[in-house]
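Q: Hi! First time doing this. I have a protein sequence and I read that you can turn it into a structure. Is that right? Here it is:
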Amino acid sequence: MNGLIFFILNVFFAVGLLLLSFSADSKKNAQKRDINKLVNIILFNAAVYAMMAITLAMCLWGPNQMAKITGKVSFTLIGWFSVACCVFIVKFPEERKNRFVTFVQWTLNIFALYIVFHKNAFNNFVVTKEGDFQIPSGLIFSGVLSRKFPLTWYPTYIFTYTIALPLLSVLMLLVRAENTKNLLTRQRIMIVILGVFLSFSLFGFINYAMSFQTMITSLLAIGFLPQVMFFIKAESTNEIWDKKYFMRSFLTFLIRFVLPAVLGGTLFAVLWKLNSVNTKLFYILFIVGLLLIIFLCTSISNFANKREFFRDTRYAAAFEKDITSIEFGDDPAVVVERVEDAFVKHVDSGFIKVFIDAGNGYLEPVFEKEEEKGKVTISIANEAFDVLLNLKKPIVFRELMKHDYTLDRVRGEILSLLKETGSDSFIMLNEGRHIIGIIFLGGKDSGNIYNDYDFDVFSKLYSNFFVIGYYLKNIMNEAVVGTVNREIKMSSQIITSIQENMDHIENPKIDCGYRMVPAHNIGGEFVDLIRLTDTRHLFIIGALSGKGIAASMSMVIMKSITRTFLAETHDFKSLVEKVNLFIRNNLPKGTIFSGTFGLLDFTTDTMYYINCGSPSIFLYTRAYNNVIEIQGEGHILGFSKDLEKYLHVKKVKLAAGDIAMICTDGLIESKSLRGEQFGKNRAQASLLENSRFPADKMAQFTYDSLVHFTSRALDDDITILVFKYLGGNK
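A: Yes, that's right. Below is the predicted 3D structure, encoded as structure tokens:
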């Protein structure tokens, strides 16, 4: 029965470590550091337990010869695993190839194999009827030497590979720690060393416990667990611990691990004598006791987590509040100052420097100090930027980047860039392949590095940083704004900008035209045409709520962020869902978009579209010489978080002579002096009357009809988009 219990325990540890390896592999941090070495160590440890379980199974139910073979393999793996841990310790934290270390590793592995399979070393593996686990082992020396040094192979082998070699590795690591100035690196080294010494303590306890229960020999590999756990902790730790953090972590460790282990061990010791009298009662009481211990420890842990002392100090909520509350109507210098204050206050950044595309191929700092003016400019034609754009890694941290193998080719350029700006990290603000700016962050005043938590927060708020960068590029630049009236100047700049940025459709199958007329110089309506491939084109027409500078700014941002999303999203519906979330989470509170997202596919002569609250989508079919409405049900964007079930992709097959006209509510709802709406019927009639003209003329004539009808200044923005399908070959 004892053998069965320890067989189950070995299987349990093997499965547990296997699951841990999957967890470690899936939790590669945001910079994707290569942790394959650590995952391999965890899997190796799991293999040790699995092989020991097989050995016990052979001892209990299989032939003795198989037990002897599997037992030798088990202890060979224990030696090899210890060597692998020693190599990890010696090379930590840099996983660089070292031929000498590799040579020593293979030498020690071969030596372990020689010892275990030596004819006089591990003679047999037997589980007796009394529940003892016996491993007979012969003397190392013979004759006179055996009397002076009565050492046997088994304990000498275990001591050498579990104590002596790890201790030598730790001494080498300690020397490196003394020569390391980086506080975080020293801390990580200390974590590794602490794990090794905890393993020494556990091996000592196991050795003591063997005198009471020899089956514990089969759990020898448990001694490696502290090393493995602390290796994981050292690899994942990327912030310097203060006294409060250390005390909080230590108490959490006691509550979550030490307390249940001590209580479980005590329970086992108290009930063990009952096992020889009534085995079934022993198991029942032990299981019930374990459940009570789990319940007790969970309750204590939950209670502790509610106490202020045990709560992690995380800044995400406060930082997000400060960043999202920035008013872009303020003086530009004030906006930059508020951004800097948020980073310094919450993130602990020593400083921030914002570089914006100056339009001359260089990024130049904005609102820099007088003594620093003109000192640093950054060329946009930097190979590092191209690689980061290709890898979709706009956020770069100095320390995490050192472990990112995907950046090996440009690591030197990135480090030079950080050195030139005196910074520790940067956030690249890009619109598709175009870099509009970079936010450089100085090292933290506390001495900590930018870590995974910072990366997660920055990633979450990236769209807000993008908005800030776009604002600086398009609004703040003194060369654009100058001293001219801001709204008038911004109107001409933005509207001209968004029209010039459109990818006009150049395909013989279609004729496209549009008219966009703001009622008061500035408006939130826009048309956008985006080329996807030679045969596919995306179009957007619609209006963002609000008037004046706010609506116009939101229009520019939405247009830009849509193109950014297209770089990573290739599903039409998913794109609209992403835009919806961006409007809701990142544009001014209460902003909504009503309009249409469409996709023209010239290979199949099909128009796909999603109605996002568009008032009218008209389709003229030449075959029936008739105009019909095809918009169907639609939902505006920005009103709800989850629109997946409300967004419906519809499609229309286009034939030569068919015409699609999409407009905003300004065309339909504008009223004459008598209060009569222009309405859908007049819009349809205008489409029919002008169907023989080119698409651009059709849009213009429809707008002229509206102006003639109202006979007064328009109160709303007017946007009209016309597609005239010509058919034929592409």
